[in-house]
Amino acid sequence: xxxxxxxxxxxxxxxxxxxxxxxxxxxxxxxxxxxxxxxxxxxxxxxxxxxxxxxxxxxxxxxxxxxxxxxxxxxxxxxxxxxxxxxxxxxxxxxxxxxxxxxxxxxxxxxxxxxxxxxxxxxxxxxxxxxxxxxxxxxxxxxxxxxxxxxxxxxxxxxxxxxxxxxxxxxxxxxxxxxxxxxxxxxxxxxxxxxxxxxxxxxxxxxxxxxxxxxxxxxxxxxxxxxxxxxxxxxxxxxxxxxxxxxxxxxxxxxxxxxxxxxxxxxxxxxxxxxxxxxxxxxxxxxxxxxxxxxxxxxxxxxxxxxxxxxxxxxxxxxxxxxxxxxxxx
Length: 330
Fold this sequence. Notes:
By secondary structure, the chain is α/β, with parallel strands linked by helices. The chain contains 16 helices and five strands. It has helices spanning 6-9, 13-20, 38-50, 64-70, 92-101, 124-136, 155-159, 171-181, 187-196, 201-210, 218-230, 233-242, 248-269, 280-284, 289-307, 312-328, and strands spanning 27-31, 77-79, 112-116, 141-147, 162-165. Helix 5 packs parallel to helix 6, helix 11 (218-230) packs antiparallel against helix 12 (233-242) and helix 13 runs antiparallel to helix 15.
């Protein structure tokens, strides 16, 4: 059985079942927001693939292959960077070298694993080289592609892989994880981190270890949700115009925090405790539940677009208009 690793699998029962039942695939896309445990899960699967224990008992954590994989020194787990040491992106010629390398038998394990930890940064030309390798590679070769969103990859690549999509965990699971990891921290600290992280364990860990960061998007989310609660198109338009300067990553973080605030408003609207203690949640709870659900769905779509190819300026304009349409229907 897989060890209980909450950083990767908490709240992701479907992924847990998929990995513990049947044979592992030779190609996985591992997707999810930053801090959701994508890299932890990728390394766990790599360890499973090289483990020498019987199927169903992998990773055992005791064999030489497991120990080397856990220490990131296994010769048959090859990490392929999207950016080379000279700062240039991986090019097709270099990618074809990995193609040739794949046909050299594994050194120690029964499988040879290629781990692309920034697969979303790979060019279309490189992805096409990778596609050929996934389709025609030797049976012992396996491929793990880590991305924020599968839309960053070519549809042809996606069609040849199984996707493991990590989703936010519940607040109860987050609090249990934090309590186990930080037994000496005050309960109120852990509760605040669990409430504010939006179900992304990495964000909770970051806050507890380094303090809350402005770049995590909460201040922007509060400002945006205040405009929603006020139901004023002019405030929404002004917010979008003033925040086009923010990076894609900052806007994605804002989107995730907006969803936490909207979820909290929904909970308040049905008399349940909120995930977030931000005062704007109370104001948002005055909106109809139907509107809150539509706004949450819209924000989720905005995050998906930002994680894909949408430009932030164009995206913010679309978001302002779409939010206004929902508010005008109230």
